[in-house]
Write the structure tokens for this entry.
Amino acid sequence: MSIGIEYYVLLSMGLFCIGLFGVLTRRNALMFLMSVELMLNAANINLIAFAFYHGNLTGQVFALFTMALAAAEVAVGLGIILVLYRNFRDVDVTVPTTMRW
Amino acid sequence: MEGAFSYAPAIAAFPLVAFVVALTFGKWLPKKGAIPGIAATAGSLLFSLWMLAAVASGEVYHETLYEWTAGAAASEVGTEGIDFTFGILIDPLAALMLVIVSLVAFLVHVFSLGYMNAEGETGLPRYYAGLGLFTFSMLAFVYADNLLMAFIFFELVGLCSYLLIGFWFRTRSAPSAAKKAFLVTRFGDYFFLIGVVAIAATFGTVAFAGDDSFVAAAETAINDGDTLFGFDAQTWVTITGLLVLGGVLGKSAQFPFHTWLPDAMEGPTTVSALIHAATMVAAGVYLVARMFGYYALSPTTLAIIAFVGGFTALFAATMGVVKDDIKQVLAYSTISQYGYMMLGLGVGGYVAGVFHLMNHAFFKALLFLGAGAVIILMHHEQDMWKMGGLKDKAPVTYYTFLAGALALAGIIPFSGFWSKDEILYDAMIVGLEEPVILAAYAMGLAAVFFTGFYTFRMVFLTFHGEPRSEAAEDPHSIGWAVKAPLITLGVLALVAGVANLAPVAKIVGADITFLEHWLDGEYGAVEGLTYSAYGELVAYETGVIGSEQLTVLIAAGLSLLLAFSGAGLAWKLYNVPEPVPYKDRLGTVGDAAEANYYQDEYQVWLANGLTRPVARAADRFDQTVIDGTVNGVSTASLFGSSWMKRLQTGIVTNYAALLVAGFIGLLLVLGLYGGWFL
């Protein structure tokens, strides 16, 4: 027996909302990074679920690309967080507010 | 004579080289650039004479040398494409003019040695560079084979006159006179430019000669009864002809664009000689002669040329009567004499007009150089009332100046008589049938009297009587560089009339009208550019009084009588030991003539009272409406963005929240329009 597509979509939506909630409420940059990971993986679940549903491999290939992208994003993100820490002795995203008009 | 014409470009190139040399190395050269200038103009003169000989042996030259751009647009008469080229056209007219220009330029260069170098002027390299460029422009203009090339060099001539009139730029008056000359002639040239564009757009060609010339195209269009730009061909030819005439009137100082020329006396006298005799002012009349075939197609234009010419001849002559500055008298005589040439050309007397152009070049260069010699003698005094008695102290200057004066006044047998008489004769025989021309003729005839009067007033005041100042009692000496050009031109002023003794030819029936044969292409000619070809185009009827011989005698007798009575009046009034001014007795007429009939005043008023308010209104429109719109847009966006920028807080969380809010908003809108919530 197979699980209906709607359950995958619900799971993915839940995961995405948790990530979004994290981005909007947390102030710690590390938490930001994790939340973004959650949202990306929510998208991955969707991609794979629909690839399975349609019976072709396109979605899976896309998911692989997304994972590679996520890895790169983490590398850059951690770099930014390191610099942030060096400059402000803190990883609170509300502290550096000078990058504006 | 085979290869003569392949050297034609050198005629104009020599002075150009002299210009570059004088400009770059003049400071270190002995005589500050005069030597290259003299060598170059002598070279031009020799080559021009060679061209003259080549044309006399029956050859002409019409060659395109360089095509600088070509277009594909179809013209109004239907020809495809138009070429803009530089080319050389050497026909009898151009060859004659080349000799005149290079001869006068050469003599002016030589004279400058005595007038500028010997007087210790500063800035001489600039002066000789200017003369070189001036000569180059004029020579290139003379043998231009198309209207656009002619226009380009016409403008260059104007620029050079600006540079040279303003030579003494540290004085107040010279730069102002230079600007005036430039602006007034530019005003006329503006119409010329429109005329060039109109002719190019109409006929698809700007060539002067040949089957594909605009003259031939215009003739065809008139014969076919074409409609050009909504006018019939005849009217359109008149309109374009008048537009080109604007440039002619400006350059040749014809009414109402004559005001620049008297002021141009601020330049060195040698420059005045060059401007008045061979370059600048001659360019206008030469252009009419060059495209005479085009003007001949339009009787209206010809009548306007004749009338303006006759009017200017009289108008300027009356102003010359009351001037005290020797150069001012000559300036007004120039305007007046060019009026005669226009009159001659306007009545279809192509030969007469060109003949007078040639004679005038010689005697006016002579008179100006003579005036320059007088100014040297007088230690730079130009007021004739401070001269007097120079006759015995400077005989060479006196006799050459007298020769020029006799030619200017039109006294037989000096050159000016023959050409002026021919013009007046041509005007008279046409005037017997056409009332407008008769009026122009009457004015030209009246001007003869004034010419005789002011010319001899000038001679008597300058050379006769008792010296009226210390300078006149002890004149400065003059050298060979001054005397040699004077003598050369003095001889020419005496004998140049032999070129075309038309009255004698008509009376005794001898075949001695050499210039007429020359311009009629008896030796060599470009087809369509001959006197007889023009004669067929000009639509004037001519009449005679009694017989042709009698008419010739009447015309010559009348003009001689008037010239003698003018000269005689001057003799009576001014050839006394202590002459006194009679100007006050003229009353308001004299005041008006002294003030140049308030021509400057009304032109300044036009500029101040009409042009300036219009310009101010345009400026205000630009400042308020156009700038206001532009500024308003930028102010609105500045103000808007000063609020919008507050969205950018620098806090990442806010951006994320805005993104999400925007996304949700978008979903809601899509949902509402997509009907998901129904």
User: Anything to note?
Assistant: The mean pLDDT of chain B is 87.
